[in-house]
Amino acid sequence: MAFTHPSCPSSVCPSLYPYLKECTHQSHDPEGCTYQSSDPEGCTYQSSDPEGCTYQSSDPEGCTYQSSDPEGCTYQSSDPEGCTYQSSDPEGYTYL
Fold first, then answer.
1. Which segments carry the region annotation Disordered (predicted)?
2. Listing from the earlier edge strand, what are the strands of the sheet with 54-59?
3. What is the pTM of this model?
């Protein structure tokens, strides 16, 4: 379903990543992560975990999401056909 393109960055908070591929209305896991999603056809997600990572995602057909982790890295990606993303890390690097 969502976030299956091999080029999509998934290394930020990898423990959250599998959950973002599912459309569940609301779920909690033992680690204290919370997820919210709505609209099974155009899924939108908002999640946060104890490590400070936050995700915003929406996926009608091509996945788009924003994520940030406690290290200061931020990602913005969209994937209608081939995944493209912007990322920046605390060291000042920016990828396009």
1. 74-96
2. 26-28, 34-38, 43-48, 54-59, 63-68, 74-79, 84-88, 94-95
3. 0.19
